Amino acid sequence: MGDTPDTTAPAEQTLEEQIAAYQREFRDLDPQVEKIVSALGRLNRRMNVAYGRQTANLGISNAEWEVLKALVLAGAPYQLGPGDLAKRLGLTPAAMTHRIDRMVNEGLVTRDRDESNRVRVIVEVTDEGREKWLEAMRLATVFEEELLQDLSQDERSALGEVLTRLLRRVEHAQPDAGGRLVDLD
Questions:
Q1: Contact criterion met (CB below 8 Å) for 123 and 85
Q2: Per residue in 141-164, pLDDT tens?
């Protein structure tokens, strides 16, 4: 048994352990602020993993789900130009083109020339793409209800208000931070 190297990754520190380590190295740290920010970061990461597992079970990626979501939220007939999609998702045009190519091949979207303006390209959700989006939303709704099950309606409302205020502050201070610093595709 001693001959086999231990290849397991060390467990992630608890929030308290992480904050204690930060305070050891950076004495000006406000532990209350750090606990909130670290908890939000960990929650976001774990939620993205959970959503990724759900979309993977449906045969799509989170990146593809983002495109489907943008198209559906645009409203019927669920179509946008590639440039509009790239802006909404904070992607470069090249990354958007790559993503659309994949999704056309998978039958999730179509890409056609606009009949009224042959220079313009239109990306539209297919029936299969809309069904995948709807199923992902059904799964996400169940996950999100389970996530918030221990919070009362008043706590949910208060949490929503607080997080919205924090989001507005970041959006005001960093108006260009809605996209990504690098392409993920």
A1: yes
A2: 999 999 999 999 999 999 999 999
